[in-house]
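Example 3.2
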Amino acid sequence: MSTPPTPVRVVLAEPFPLLRDGLACLLEQHPAVVLVGEASEAGALRHLRERLAPDVILSHPHFLDKDERGTQPDSSSEGATGEAFDELAVRVVALVDEAEPVRRRVLALLDDGVAGFVSTRDDAETVLEAVCVVAQGGEVYLSPRVAARLAPPGRRRSEDIDEGEDPLTPREREVLACAALGYPNARIADELGLAPGTVRNHLSAAYAKLGARTRGEAVVWAWRYGLIDLPPAPDVERR
C-alpha cells in the first residue's frame, strides 16, 4: 500500500480578521493542507515561523517587506528573518492587493525570495494551487490576475503573440533555456553569472509576457513560438 503524501504545513499571516478567518476556513477544509498557525502582525509571524517551521507561509505582503520585518526585536539589517526567504526552509506565498502598486511590490518580493503570488480577488482553487505548487519547490507561482498586473502596459500575452514575434529580451531567453534543461534557480544563476534574485526577476517577467503561471508553462510557450530550443531527449537503452 502506498503511503499518502504528507500534508503541507501552512502558517497564515493576515491583519484583517475577516479575510484571515475566511482563508483559515479554506485551508482547514483542504485534505492536502494543515493550518498550523495564524498571525495578525509581523512579529507574531516571525515567532510562528521559528517555532513551528512550516512548509509554506501564506501572508499579507506588508509582513514580508524588509522595512516591516526589520522593526522586530533582534532582527538583522536583512529583515526579521535575517535571511532572504529562498535561503530558508520555508516557502512564501504573498496575498497581493490589486489596489496597491502590484508590479513594484511583486518584483521587490521576488528579489527577497518570495515564491508565489495570488490576488486577494483570486478564487479559492487558485490560492490552494499556489500553496501546493510552491511547497514542491523549484517554481515561482503567479496567478493569472497577478501575472496580468505584472506585465508592462500594452504587453500582449502568449495567445496574442504572432509567429516570429519575440517579446522576450535576450537574457530572458537565456534564463528560460536553462530552465528548459531542468536547472534550479541557483544553477541558472551560476551558469549565467547572475544573482539568484535577478534570475527570479527574469523568470517572472517572462511569465507575465507569455501569460504563464509556472516555469513549465513558460518553457512550453517559449518553445511553441520558437523563442527557445528544447533540449533533446536522452538516449534510453531499451531491454
